[in-house]
Amino acid sequence: MASDRYFLHHGILLPTVVHNEESLKYANDFKVQDSDVFAITYPKSGTTWMQEIVPLVLNGGDLTPVQTIPNWDRVPWLEETRAALVLNRLPSPRAMVSHMPYHLMPPSFFPSKAKVIYVTRNPKDVMVSSFHFHKMASFLDDPGTFDEFLNKFLSGQVLFGKWTDHVKSWRNSDLGDRILYITYEEMVKDLRGVLERLSRFLGRDLSEETLDRVANHCCFSNMKLNAMSNYSLVPQEIMDSSKSPFLRKGVAGDWKNHFSPEQDFKFTAVLKEEMNGTNIKFPWDE
Ligand code: A3P
Question: CATH no. for residue 245?
């Protein structure tokens, strides 16, 4: 792609604003510990939500980290330029996020016992969220028309490549009980239930009262007010929330307000074709 805003890393498009060869080398050389926890997402699938939830679950519902540390330092990205500054200062167990496909995780990750929470979101809503994000983030190219962006999304000419490749890479991973699969839609529908599953997975026995407190803190309206998580600390010339807030709508199914019947038909057909033969089923397929 002819733009100094992006570069290709193993064939996937990354934004130069937060990645460079050095940060990717740092990520690749990173020594994963057995106690590490990774929340992995394709962009716009609930990363920021996980950066709120995971520390709360790990710390028994203590709100201090989410009220005092910006999300990007609280649960940093493994592959971004800040990683070298913050990852080794994280308290144990270290919680990180990553958008990397499975095969680009650091070599030390595979033989470790580190746990992974993989969040998937309906790709139509992912695309809509990404479209609006491209409008508000000055470090990304303008998305063009909705139809143009839809075509880029389907052909994988977007950040972190094709949605289907990402999802297949993690869904077909051989991590057994080291990985927990959740969907954004389950979180929207029953956050309390997902928190229970998550705390069991992370070996935390949270009381009913703590689970209620965490669920309440992590609901969309409360997170939108949290300056440590709503990106209001980022200057307006970098992220312009008057064009579209980062925590924009927080719902499942907003794609219905954006897609024409033709776009829906095309998107569904391409996704169906690419997921064919995988046995991977999602709530939105039913
Ligand atoms: P929308 O643009 O559809 O509102 P990511 O953090 O991976 O970039 O994903 C951003 C998307 O997650 C945005 O979607 C944002 O609103 C949504 N999100 C973040 N926190 C949320 C919450 N507590 N509840 C529901 N959606 C949330």
Answer: 3.40.50.300
